[in-house]
Amino acid sequence: MRYVGHGVLIAVALAIAVGGVVELLTGWIHPWERVRVLRPVPHGVGQILTGSGLCCFFGVGAFTPTGDALRVLLAVSAGLFVAGIVLVGVSRLPDR
C-alpha cells in the first residue's frame, strides 16, 4: 500500500512538471493562475523545478536508499523544490 501512495504522489509531481513544460512550449497557463502570473517563463521553469524536486523527494521516500545517498538525494530534492518556489514567486512580481 505504501508504494501506491508514493506512486500517486509521484504522478502529481510529474503533472506539475509537465504543466511547466507545456507552459514553456505553448505559453498556456492554468486558468486559475492567469491573473497572478506576470512572467510566464520563470513560472514554467519554476514548475519544472518544483515538480522535479517533489518527484525526487517522493522517490527517495519510496525506495529508501542507505548511507550518504539518502542525504544527498534529500538535499538535491530540497534544492530543486526551493529554487522552483522562488522562481514561481518571482514570476508574480511586477516588472520595473
TrEMBL record:
Keywords in alphabetical order: Membrane, Transmembrane, Transmembrane helix
TM segment ranges: 6-29, 41-63, 69-90
Protein name: Integral membrane protein
Organism: Streptomyces viridochromogenes
